[in-house]
Amino acid sequence: MTDSPNVTPVPADPAENPFMKAYTQILVAAWTDEDFAARLDSDPAAAVREYGLDVPEGANLVVTRVIPEEHGEPSEQTAIDKWEAGAVTGTYVLSVPEIPQVDLETLTEDDLLAIAAGSVSVSCCSCTPCCCCA
Q1: Residue from 127, 28, 31 nearest 74 by CA
Q2: Short-list 25, 16, 67, 74, CA closest to 50
Q3: What b-and-e string marks burial along 34-44, b requiring 16 or more CB atoms within 10 Å of the CB?
Q4: What is the model's pTM?
Q5: Mean pLDDT value across residues 62-77
Q6: How far apart are CA 48 and CA 32, in angstroms?
Q7: Residues β-bridged to residue 60
Q8: Tens-digit pLDDT profile for residues 13-62
Q9: How far is CA 64 from CA 2, 44, 102, 108, 131, in A?
Q10: Quick one: how far is CA 82 from the chain centroid?
Q11: Cα separation of 122 and 134, whole Å?
């Protein structure tokens, strides 16, 4: 069986997925740059394109700031699956919770990716299930 020429294989490690790399950069920008956060709220498709995520014309992009409990345990794979479902449903979902209560300046990109995936615990003063808290 051969791979379809129009399908890019997803790396086995979600951290190597191009979506996760862009998603991590979007999270950091949303948490550290008020102008970007405002653009993400006012024109999310244009904002995510700045980091290499393409939203097709006519598709809907939903940016969730509070992750509903029914979305299940946050993970890198969940974030990837929610985004990739947009190709089928026409609605792309990107979870961008409020700023985590950590010192972002001391974290590496790998630390931020782990936080975004929910695989690292951080202390939040009033946490709801989100992609930054486990």
Answers
A1: 127
A2: 25
A3: eebbebbeeeb
A4: 0.65
A5: 76
A6: 15
A7: 91
A8: 656 788 999 999 999 999 999 999 999 999 999 999 999 999 999 999 99
A9: 37, 11, 20, 24, 11
A10: 9
A11: 8
